[in-house]
UniProtKB/TrEMBL annotation:
PANTHER family: PREPHENATE DEHYDROGENASE, PREPHENATE DEHYDROGENASE [NADP(+)]. Residues 8-299 form the Prephenate/arogenate dehydrogenase domain. InterPro entries: 6-PGluconate_DH-like_C_sf (IPR008927), NAD(P)-bd_dom_sf (IPR036291), PDH_C (IPR046825), PDH_N (IPR046826), Preph/Arog_dehydrog (IPR050812), Prephen_DH (IPR003099). Keywords: Oxidoreductase. Pfam families: PDH_C (PF20463), PDH_N (PF02153). The keyword Oxidoreductase applies. It comes from the Bacteria. PROSITE patterns: PDH_ADH. Signal peptide: none annotated. This is Prephenate/arogenate dehydrogenase family protein.
Length: 310
C-alpha cells in the first residue's frame, strides 16, 4: 500500500459538490500541483475558477485531460459511461482515473472497458450533502467518512499500484478506505442511502398532496422528523434520477422488503396491535444506537464542520 501520494495535474470532470470538495481537499492536503476543471456547463467552470476551486477550466474534455496524471469523474452516474468512453482515447498513458458515483456497477463496466494503458479505479466516497454546484464544496467533507473502492478484475502490477494510489488519495483527504465488489456495494447502498432518499422524496411529495393541510402549516410545524426528510428531499433531481435508473435491481429488492414491513405496520395500526408496534420500534432503536456508537451519525444541520458554506 502506498503511504502518500502526489499528482502533478488533476483534471476534475464535473465540478459540482463532490468534484469541488475533492479539489479543495487535495489542495489543502498538498496532494496536487495543478487542478483543471472540465464541465459541460461553461457557467460552472467560470464560477469554479472565480472561487479558486480550479486553476484552469475547459468545456472540451479532450483538451482538459491532456497532461493529467489524475482524472476524477464527478459527473452524475448516467454520464460515467460516455465520459469513460472518451477517456479511453483522450487520457494520457498511465493516468489514474477515478469516479465518485453513488452506484458502482456502471463504473465497474466502464473500468473493465478501458484499455490497459490507463487505470480506472471505481470509488464512492460515502459523504455528501443535499446541495450541489461548485459553491457547495468544502475540504473536510471526506474526513472520517468511508470511501468504498470496487476495483476492476485486473491483476497486472500497474493496476494494483493504481488501486493503492487511489486508496492513498482518499486516505490523504481524511477518508477511511474499504474495498468490496461493485455488486455488494450497490446492494448495501440501496439499503443505507438509495431507499432512504426514495422514502424522503415520497414523504415530502405525499405531504404536499394532503390538500386540507396548508403549505404554510407544513413549514410552521416542521420542527423535527419531517424537517430532516425535507433536507434529504432537497437533493439534486438529476443525480438521484441516475442513481435509481442505474441501481434498479438492488433498489427494487430492498423496496420490496420495505413495502412488506410497511404492510406489517399498517396492519398493526389497523388492528390496534400495540405490542407489535412496540416490538418493531424497540428492535430498530438498537440500530440507531449502534450507528451513533460507531461514530457514523452526523449532527445536522451543518455536520459539525466549520468550513461548510451554508
Ligand atoms: N451529492 C452527494 O451527496 C454525493 C455523495 C457521494 C457521491 N456522489 C456522486 O458524485 C457525483 C456528482 O454528484 P454532485 O453532488 O457533485 O453533483 P453536482 O450536480 O453538484 O455536480 C455535477 C456536475 O457534473 C456536470 N456534468 C454533468 N454531465 C457532465 C458531462 N457529461 N461532462 C462534464 N460535466 C458534466 C454538471 O454540469 C455539474 O456541474 C454523482 O455521480 C453522485 O452520484 C454524490
Ligand atoms: O447526507 C446527505 O445529504 C447524503 O445524502 C449523503 C449520501 C448518503 O446517502 O449518505 C448521499 C449519496 C451518496 O452517494 C453518499 C452520501
Amino acid at each position: 500500500m502506498t503511504d502518500s501520494v502526489k499528482f502533478n495535474r488533476a483534471c476534475v470532470i464535473g465540478v459540482g459538490l463532490i468534484g469541488s470538495s475533492l479539489a479543495h481537499a487535495m489542495r489543502t492536503a498538498a496532494l496536487v500541483d495543478e487542478i483543471i476543471g472540465v464541465d459541460r456547463d461553461a457557467d460552472v467552470i467560470a464560477r469554479a475558477q472565480k472561487l479558486g476551486v480550479i486553476d484552469k477550466g475547459e468545456t472540451d474534455l479532450v483538451k482538459g485531460v491532456k497532461g493529467a496524471d489524475l482524472i476524477i469523474v464527478s459527473t452524475p452516474v448516467g454520464a460515467i459511461g460516455a465520459v469513460a468512453a472518451e477517456l479511453a482515447s483522450a487520457a494520457d498513458d498511465g493516468a489514474l482515473i477515478i469516479d465518485v458515483g453513488s452506484v458502482k456497477g456502471v463504473a465497474l463496466d466502464a473500468a473493465k472497458a478501458m484499455p490497459e494503458r490507463v487505470h480506472f479505479v471505481p470509488c464512492h466516497p460515502v459523504a455528501g450533502t443535499e446541495q450541489s454546484g461548485p459553491e457547495a464544496g468544502f475540504a473536510s467533507l471526506f474526513h472520517d467518512r468511508w470511501c468504498i473502492l470496487t476495483p476492476a478484475p485486473r491483476d497486472d502490477d500497474a493496476y494494483k499500484a493504481a488501486v493503492d494510489k487511489a486508496a492513498a488519495l482518499w486516505s490523504g483527504v481524511g477518508a477511511k478506505v474499504e474495498i468490496m465488489t461493485a455488486e455488494h456495494h450497490d446492494l448495501a447502498l440501496a439499503v443505507t442511502s438509495h431507499l432512504p432518499h426514495l422514502i424522503a422524496f415520497t414523504i415530502v411529495g405525499a405531504a404536499d398532496d394532503v390538500e386540507s393541510v396548508a403549505a404554510g402549516e407544513i413549514v410552521k410545524y416542521s420542527a423535527g422528523g419531517f424537517r430532516d426528510f425535507t433536507r434529504i428531499a432537497a437533493s439534486d433531481p438529476v443525480m438521484w434520477r441516475d442513481v435509481f435508473l442505474n441501481n434498479k435491481e438492488a433498489v427494487l429488492e430492498v423496496l420490496g422488503r420495505f413495502s412488506e414491513e410497511l404492510a406489517v405496520m399498517q396492519r398493526a395500526i389497523r388492528w390496534g396491535d400495540g405490542q407489535a408496534l412496540e416490538d418493531a420500534f424497540t428492535r430498530v432503536r438498537g440500530l440507531r444506537k449502534a450507528i451513533v456508537e460507531a461514530g457514523q451519525e452526523s449532527a445536522a444541520p451543518n455536520f459539525g464542520r466549520d468550513d461548510k458554506p451554508r
